[in-house]
Amino acid sequence: MMKKKGLSLLLAACLVLSLAACGPANGPVTTVSPAPQTSRVPEESTAVPVTPGTTAEPAEPGTTEPETSTSEPGPTPAAPSETTEPETDSPYHPTTSLTFTKETYPKVDGATAMYPMSVEIAKAVIGLSEEEAEAYITHHTTSKAYYGLIDKTCDLIFVSEPSDDILNRAKDAGVSFEMVGIGRDGFVFVVNQDNPVDSLTLEQIVGIYTGKITNWKEVGGEDLPIIAYQREPNSGSQNLMEKMVMKGTPMMEAPAEYLISSMDGLIDQVASYENSRSALGYSIYLYAKDQYVKDSIKFLSINGVYPTDDSIADGSYPLSKIVYAIFRADEPENSPVRQLVDWLKTPEGQLAVEAGGYVGMK
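-> structure tokens emitted (362 positions)
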């Protein structure tokens, strides 16, 4: 009896031990939430500093975020420079065989109408821009330019041929001139566009300016008095009028209101509405065509030939003329003045003359 009881106790103990080791066979299932997944430590990356007031975008895993500077933006790096030639408004300077500086360039003066040509010459041989040349070059009237040459306050002048009064003044001062033709221009007569007359002969013009012809109907126009304007003595225009047209015949004395002291003033008088059908005047072709243009005036044909670049160049226009570079005859050989004048006769120099509006010496 005791043995059975001991055996039973032993079997019960083994059963308990077996159950403790293996766990319950059919116990209730307990759901356990998985432990939070531990993030993989990312690879080493560059820190991304953030400027206050801005938000940094997170870097993609496994990538490196570009560094953002926190300093103030510096100047934008300059683009690579290109080697270029210095800018100049003159198309002649790079190829001219003669060059000057402002200090070595001759002191020049001249007629009002020849100022643009003088500017072009300075641009060419000094290498000045248009603005620089215009500030550097000064021209006065023809008579003042001649007086300056006689008084030795200038070295070279660009003008038309001198009047007898100028020649006498030079002679009294013991000065002789050397004159070199450098271009061609024309002497023109102008009337208002409303005037029906388109042409005059030289004989008719002489008749008007001596007072023999006083009404436009005498030369094919309307029955209106002729208001014949003149320039002041020793002006370039007046000298040309006396030498090219009058040729020694004295002009009638003009009333004070018909004697005009400037080229633009004469053109203004002819252009005015008040004198629209009566006025007659004269000027320089280049000046009236390009420099002081008035739509209300027109050029007259002379002896049936209208003034144009071509008719002036070939001499068919009766009042074609030469423009001159004039200097004192005692100018030393190979001086800057003589070098410049010699250059003006070359193809290079003639380009500058033509750029100034004149017809070249062909």
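Confidence is low (pLDDT under 50) at residues 1-88.
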